[in-house]
Amino acid sequence: MAVDRDQVLRSAAALLTRRSTATMDEVAKAAGISRATLHRQFAGRDALVRALEALCIAEVEAALAAARPDEGPATDAVRRLVAHVEPNAPLIAFLYTENQLFEGEEQNEGWARIDERVTALFTRGQAGGEFRIDLTPAWLTEALYGLLASAAWAVAEGRVAPKDFTHMIVELLLGGVLRQDDPAPRKES
């Protein structure tokens, strides 16, 4: 019987995004294959995580393309981007915590391409006067990734409703935490 590698990866992603410490035996069981079959596909956890990273990069790049970050107001583009990336947020959250992805001096070229496009969106928003300029586009990009991961964890744990995912991220990222109707922040006594 031929093993559908994509199905194995998606099963692994579904399990690992819920339980990041799952063993390779548990991953194999979730995929409906033996551990030996899983090992033939992926030599170990590192190889599996790298394959999940490649899957995530492809899906985030597709989400970026669908979000059309170069079109219309930058604020609308951020909303579209978050909405299109949402289905991949649990996998992003899992990968965000996998330290081996960041070992060594080389960043995966796929993440570099994604970073470049997202940073360009924030740069465009700053140049157009939509976004504040006291925060660098690189920091805004990292903040977006952190919010995506945090929201995915909160949804997975049932602390946040899935329907609120995009709204929470976009509003916090674009609006900050200060209330807009307050004339000035309150001073602590």
What this model shows, in words?
- By secondary structure, the chain is mainly alpha-helical.
- It has helices at residues 5-18, 24-31, 35-41, 45-67, 74-85, 89-96, 109-127, 137-156, 165-175.
- Helix 1 (5-18) packs across helix 6, helix 7 packs across helix 8 and helix 8 (137-156) runs antiparallel to helix 9 (165-175).
- The chain starts with a helix and ends in a 14-residue tail after the last helix.
- The relative contact order is 0.11.
- The model has no long low-confidence stretch (mean pLDDT 88).
Question: How many E-type strands?
Answer: 0
Taking the alpha carbons of the first and last residues, their distance comes to 70 Å
Q: Enumerate the spans where pLDDT stays under 50 for 5 or more consecutive residues.
A: none
Summed over residues and divided by their number, the pLDDT gives a mean of 88
- Net shape: elongated
- What order do the helices and strands follow? HHHHHHHHH
Beta-strand share of residues:
under 5%
Helix content: 55-70%
Structural class from helices and strands? mainly alpha
Specify Rg, calculated over alpha carbons. Answer: 19 Å
Q: Tell me about the biggest sheet?
A: none
Individual helix count? 9
